[in-house]
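re: that complex we talked abt at group meeting.

here r the seqs, copy pasted straight from the sheet so there may be weird spacing, ignore it
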Amino acid sequence: MEKHSQELSQDVLLKISNIDAFYGTFQALWDVSLVVKPREIVALIGSNASGKSTLINTISGVIHPAKGTIEFDGRDISTLDPFQVVTLGISQVPEGRRIFPEMTVLDNLILGSYNRQARSDREQNLKRVYEHFPILEQRKNQLAKTLSGGEQQMLVIGRGLMSDPKLMLFDEISLGLAPKVTDELYRAVREIRGKGITILLVEQNVRRSLKEADRAYIIKAGRIVLGKNVAELREEEIKQAYFGV
Amino acid sequence: MSVEVLGDLSRPIVMGVLLGGLYALIGLGLSMVFGVMKLINVAHGDLMIFSAYFAYAVMTAWGIDPILSLTMGIPLWFVLGFAIQKYVMRRAFGISMEAPLIIAFGISLILQGLAQRISAYSIGLETPYALGGISLGITSVPRAYLLSFVAALVVMLLLREFLRRSYLGKAIVAASQDRRGAELVGINTGRVYAFAFAIAMATAAVAGVFFGLTFPFYPTAGVGYLVIAFGVVIVGGLGSMLGTFIGGIVLGLTQTLSSYFLGTAWQMLFLYLIVFVVLAVRPQGIFGR
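got the structure back, here u go
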């Protein structure tokens, strides 16, 4: 067992095994398994309400799986709460952004480094965030609610980086944004991966997912129906997952 | 003639501002709990008054000065608040939105019962320094009013700096603006809620003592001041310490000025009327978001 988990930490960063998850009495995930390896960009593809966000939230500890396990870095995190999951090195960029609207941009970022490990690296991480998104430095003393949609999304990505994550979960970062802004966000996503951070992303735009990701999982009605390298993924397979046969 | 009127007016204006400070001090804790947990803590007035009873008991038993007794009262109320949130309210929040409200009613009744055991009659924290007047140049005011105002100003400024500068303070503000967002940046919201309740109770401890130095109190006195504190929060708006302070002053001035022009019988009516008008015209409060 010991040996097994050591092997696991070397070539798998996140391992989800056979999880079920519920919203109240509604079962949103059925026997879901997937792996994310270090430095990968993995995309979750699926139509609306297929369980993508639920899966992201289950990893973050917002929802606890009723069955199955989630291992991160060789450690079972299935029962941890969100603040504990963040401390271990998983940071979520949530759908709907969830900024702190009445606080300054800088305070939003500072709160990203709330966990004790990240506090000591705060200034260094702040510099890194400003390198990814120079506009945030210009706007650091403004209230977060005064930013444009794209800037708010940058803020949330920056806030996520402030916790010194090993794995980042991106949930629909391009939602409602212009293509040009989306391009800029994904340029940052690639830069982030380039710094050694692993990425699991949910993206409504399938073409975008396939362009950015190394591997993709297709999720349909709460079940993973396919997982393979993006290069090997055929269009028919995606269509089938989306529209059924 | 106008100078005459102004001369007469200076006293109610100064008294109103000072009284408003005390109202703000009571409102601060209510505002904090409401802002962070969306709970109208109906026990807030009783928790405040009970602090006056505690100071009274300590003063009668050991002869300890009421303000000095806050060195015990503040930590005690802080711990009490932390425990109420952590062990009682947190579970109640898991049941329904009404459950914590009912618990707060329960706490209110328990405290009134306990206060009854200490003294069923109207009592006051009588100290030589709070009695008597002090001249402020244009008019003379009761010393207790001035003390309360200074205490309110100090508590408000401390709280404001704490919320702006410390990690925990920022976390409390963040949790009040977006709870899920706060959890996702690594804030243990359960713990932050307990701290917010604890801090609110510490301010109630201070408010109770200065209230007791200013006015006589009785076991159910907290109920009326809960309503005033609620008015302060409505007028000042949530999310701003300064707003709460100014909300208190608006109500204090309303009370003293309506009393001055129309007689004491009218003062509370006008106070509630102002609250009503603010609710109708600007429901987020003068400084609210």
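couple things i noticed - Chain B is about 75% helix and 0% strand. Chain B has a mean pLDDT of 92.
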